[in-house]
Amino acid sequence: MAQLSIVSGSVGLITLQNPPVNALSAAVRQGIVDTVEKALSDPKVKSVVIRGQNGVFCGGADIKEFGTKMTGPHLIPMIHAIEAGNKPMVAAIEGSALGGGLELALGCHYRVAHSKARLGLPEVTLGLLPAAAGSQRLPRLIGVPAALNLITTGRHVTAAEALQLGIVDQVTDHDTVDTAVKFALNVAGQSLDARRISTFPCPRPAELDALFEDAMQKVRKSARGAIAPVACVQAVRAAATLPYAEGLERERELMATLFNSGQARALQYCFFAQRAVGRWSTPSGARWDTSKPVPVPKAAVIGLGTMGRGIAVALAQTGLSVVAVETQEKQMMEAKQAVSGMLERGAKRRGVAPVSDKISYSGNIRAVADVDLVIEAVFEDMAVKEKLFQQLSAICKPGALLCTNTSALDVDHLASQTRNPELVVGMHFFAPAHVMKLLEVVYGRRSSTQAVATAMQLGKKMGKVSVAVGNCRGFVGNRMLKPYIEQAFYLLEEGATPELVDRALEEFGFSMGVFRMSDLSGLDVGWRVRKGDGLVEPGLASGPSARVRQGRRYSPLGDLLCEQGRFGQKTGRGWYQYEKPGGRVARSDPWLHSFLEGYRARHGLVARRIDHEEVLERCLYALINEGFHILEDGIAAGPEDIDVIYVFGYGWPRHRGGPMFYAGMVGLAKVLERLEHYHQAHPDVPHLQPCSLLRRLVASGSPPIHKWREVIRKLHSHL
Ligand SMILES: CCCCCCC/C=C/C(=O)SCCNC(=O)CCNC(=O)[C@H](O)C(C)(C)COP(=O)(O)OP(=O)(O)OC[C@H]1O[C@@H](n2cnc3c(N)ncnc32)[C@H](O)[C@@H]1OP(=O)(O)O
Fold it and tell me: Would I find Lyase among this entry's keywords (predicted)?
């Protein structure tokens, strides 16, 4: 797992061997201990280069080992032995040096990086801190403010930034190992006294207390209840205020609280779930590893509203030639300006030239005749989309993929409007489409394997986390949102306020509660959908029957607000009030509170005290219950798909792992018991009736989440 050879006569070359990222498994750690010992004791060896196999230095500690019984040498003494050695050690960094990988490099006396390498301490994203002395060495090397930034955000830096910060000593465009070997030959025999980072005094910036208070406030605000960023600040503070050995002890104590925490488990689950969704499969047998995507050099976007603009930008930034079609002149003018602004800002952020020349505009749909793939992002209306798909089917070249950005409509029905339904898939982006990481790729009954594979690959190229899902109303994300929002409405009827519901959800970790979110996205969006579903009845009818639609409980609260022209932020009024239309700061609205009182009185509802626990249980368990239905129906292949969708698209706090993981953490038996309790209290709410898959999982002993697929498979094989 680590091999020593001698190159250039006197340089010991240690190669880490643990594909694909040379993670520091027990075997690799043992290999490093053994080879370092050998190199230090071999008189032929005057200096040492450590590198990773296959162009990757090291992706850090082996995350798969966490949560298991750890064996093998510990990282800290291993790295100390390297630093304390009396021969110069040079890290040759190609690919990535992350987490324990960078900590290993910081134990070396010199670091040489390839210009394309990325370095960082991303432990915080896994619910941990750099506990192989990284939190103590990095501030000593680059100063407290820069170290705080890197350690609390976990961001990866380029080799150029690493050089500027002082993390690496040399950056090369040539062969990194050759360069590092030359470097090692040059420094052989030189004193190492000034090269051992743990012996450096930590630079103490003026206003140290204010600096840490500020850092703590910042992380508390952005962490939304995550504990690791707070521990990271505390660890760096220890580096700045304590001698090295004491700082190390503090780092160990802090790590001990994080290591076995539920948050660390949730974040590490998310890491693997994000990768697992790339190994997609569909019920028809299509799979990620056997399906061949077709190349897509040229694509078109139809409809340049908010979504279309974002999609066009995302495609152009990926390097595709884009034809952007909009038939309304005014919309086209506005879109051109908005798109060029987005491209410019994006280019500035990424330090590259804007790619405006990648997009050509047309008011004529015939301009899409030669593209390889079309994404329609027109108005969310089935009749409009039906007509468009009929046109596209006639205009596009043979084999061109036809994709819909619908957020809920029937992909099979749209496919049926075309001559080649196998070429139709959903590509459901999330607003703003050039920023949000999530993409739901919706396969229909007749979508070809190649069409799904192409959409998934295009999503990946665009930097999206793409999840393949089946076709149903709302797909995965929006389908689960429905019972969640419904419960929030019922809670208002029963005595809660939007403020109370939102506070409970935001304290749980959502970036925005359901009502603030709904004000942001526009209340009219859901109103239009409910109208389309025949649920909206205008007016102020009273009595119990006014709150029943299609035989089940219904809350017309959202419809009543829309009737008043309260569409949320855009009109300056919604569930909250705003300083002006388009305003962002939500303020409590006395009108809304008296409206709710009047509503309850009219319907004979008596307000009762509702606490945060009930808000969370009703909203979240209803959403989770729908997730179980989605798994049961085979719309999502596994719980990871649902969790990734919620974490990347719906603001679910990552440190809680996604709704299905959260259900497992709470305990499936408890979720079942609470759903039964609430369903008994509200028998007219079908979404509270526990799903049979949940019952089955509880009956089979509530297996851990990675075993759910077995239970689901058995369930499907019995059907
Ligand atoms: C009491 C104990 C004290 C211990 C002290 C601990 C201090 C140190 C802690 C750490 O080091 S925690 C780990 C920190 N490192 C990271 O967070 C990096 C994670 N990896 C990545 O960001 C990326 O994988 C990459 C290295 C940038 C490469 O990206 P790429 O897109 O090329 O490949 P991926 O698809 O992401 O990964 C390929 C494959 O490798 C698996 N993998 C990646 N990193 C690790 C790892 N550190 N441990 C175990 N496995 C890893 C990844 O899961 C993929 O496999 P599959 O999941 O697809 O099977």
Answer: yes
Q: Give CA 250 to chain center in angstroms.
A: 31
Please name the CATH architecture into which domain 2-259 falls. Alpha-Beta Complex (3.90)
Residue with the nearest Cα to atom 58 of ligand 1?
Answer: 275
Closest to 389 (Cα-Cα) out of 360, 363, 362, 409 = 409
> Is 122 close to ligand 1, i.e. is its CB under 6 Å away?
yes
Q: Is 62 in the pocket of ligand 1 (CB under 6 A)?
A: yes
Q: How deeply is 9 buried, as exposed, middle or buried, from its count of CB atoms within 10 A (0-12, 13-18, 19+)?
A: exposed
> Lowest-pLDDT range, 152-156, 354-358, 668-672?
354-358
In CATH, the number for domain 612-718 is 1.10.1040.10
Which amino acid residue places its CA nearest to atom 29 of ligand 1? 21
Reference 128, options 229, 239, 212, 223; nearest CA is 229
> What pLDDT score was predicted for residue 678?
98
* Ligand 1 pocket check for 23: Cβ under 6 Å: yes
**Which CATH architecture describes the domain 298-475?**
3-Layer(aba) Sandwich (3.40)
Please, where are the H alpha helices in 364-443? 382-395, 411-415
Distance 118 CA to ligand 1 centre (A): 13
Mutate to test the pocket of ligand 1, among 18, 63, 79, 280 (most ligand atoms within 8 A of CB): 63
The pTM score is: 0.95
